[in-house]
Amino acid sequence: MEQVLQWLNPETILSAGGVYLLLLIVFLESGFFFGFFLPGDSLLFTAGLLSGIGMLESSLVMLLLTLNVAAIAGYGCGYLFGSRMDKLLINMREGIFYKKKYLEITRSFYGRHGKLTLIIGRFLPVIRTFVPILAGLVGVNVRQFMLYNVLGSLIWICSFVVAGFLLGKSFPQIREYLELVVAALIILTAIPVIRTYRKEKKRSELQSKK
Hints:
By secondary structure, the protein is an all-alpha fold. It is 77% helix and 0% strand. The protein starts with a helix and ends with a helix.
């Protein structure tokens, strides 16, 4: 378990696989149900920070460009999967990487926020992964989906990467405290996720009882 957690550490991921592994993780987390556990937010922030202090061999512009392509493509694949594999999803057996409650929680969130979920959901792990699948499942118009897909990706990627980059550029010595910074970010991003998860779980349970 300790080794698994170590490999989910953003700094470990970036030192081991660099930008290519970063792009793969963002792609998988953005639309493949088995990628929901990957550390997207903290990874984006860490990538920006390392780029800002010159420890990542990629310019900010190239980083933003490639990450957005990966995130948009990941959402697109999730949409296609949901639109073509609806029966498979409904009848799929639950396991470590797939639980029907994740889809139901996302459905509940989508019912309240509509297509804006494609933007807001980018900032919420689990919902981020399942929302494009759900969009394909319920038949959201492709053009509308792509519009919200691109907007959501730009806002999500740019906010975390640019924030990390500016922090690294302004305080290069922060490299010595990177683990603490990442840990704090994980905690801060986890709080709204847990609150949202609990609320949507309750709503989903209430709807299923009606």
